[in-house]
Specification:
Blueprint: H1 3-10, H2 18-27, E1 29-33, E2 38-40, E3 48-54, E4 57-62, E5 68-74, E6 79-80, H3 83-88, E7 95-98, E8 102-108, H4 109-118, H5 120-146, H6 149-159, H7 161-166, H8 169-176, H9 180-198
Antiparallel strand pairs: 1-8, 2-7, 3-6, 3-8, 4-5, 4-7
Length: 199
């Protein structure tokens, strides 16, 4: 997929004109990550964000007792970002790492700020994107308490099948708030149910 198509899929707003997209496109540069590369490490102040053309990344933290906990996955045509560090100019508590080889389009914080203040469509897109992220975060924080692990796993399959295909089981489990042993059991039960349903 070409740069322009990828950016149009992400920066989707009716106020953005063809001329706007040319300016937006110029502001992004291609960056590639090998599997295992870090886009951001704890203690760094994020200076940019990425648009994922192809590949998979995850953000994660280490808990107080040293456990590796996945906080988010970033798949094709999503914004790869550490919002607090980027916009508050604070040191990140998270790491962001490539789980596969990735092709991305990177834009610096200062350049985005220029676009945000000069292009109405970018302002509207930015507000809508941030609102959506707040809703997603709220829903996830409630569901991890009120919904069972099987339903959360099924939701992840529906919404981010790329994660199921490409992320290690242990990382998916930590994202769901369960152990990898529990996730293995859930997968086995679901597989058994699918087999019985097909008979």
């Amino acid at each position: 997929m070409h740069k322009e198509k990828t950016l149009q899929l992400v920066y989707c707003n009716s106020l953005l004109t063809e001329e706007n997209f040319e300016i937006i496109s110029t502001a992004h540069r291609e960056v590639r990550f090998k599997k295992g590369d870090f886009f951001l490490s704890k203690g760094e102040i994020s200076g940019s964000y990425l648009i994922m053309e192809s590949g998979l990344m995850r953000s994660f933290v280490y808990s107080y007792n040293g456990d590796d906990i996945t906080t988010n996955f970033f798949s094709n045509h999503e914004v790869v970002i550490e919002v607090l560090s980027l916009f508050n100019r604070t040191r990140s508590e998270e790491y962001i790492q490539a789980l596969t080889d990735c092709i991305c389009w990177q834009i610096d914080h200062d350049r985005f700020e220029q676009l945000y203040h000069s292009i109405k469509g970018i302002r509207e897109w930015g507000r809508a994107w941030m609102s959506e992220q707040l809703f997603v975060s709220k829903i996830r924080s409630v569901e991890i308490i009120t919904d069972n692990a099987t339903n959360r796993y099924l939701k992840l399959i529906r919404e981010k099948p790329q994660v199921i295909r490409q992320a290690p089981l242990k990382q998916i489990a930590s994202y769901l708030g369960i152990t990898d042993t529990s996730l293995s059991r859930i997968r086995k039960e679901l597989s058994k149910g699918s087999f019985l349903a097909s008979k």
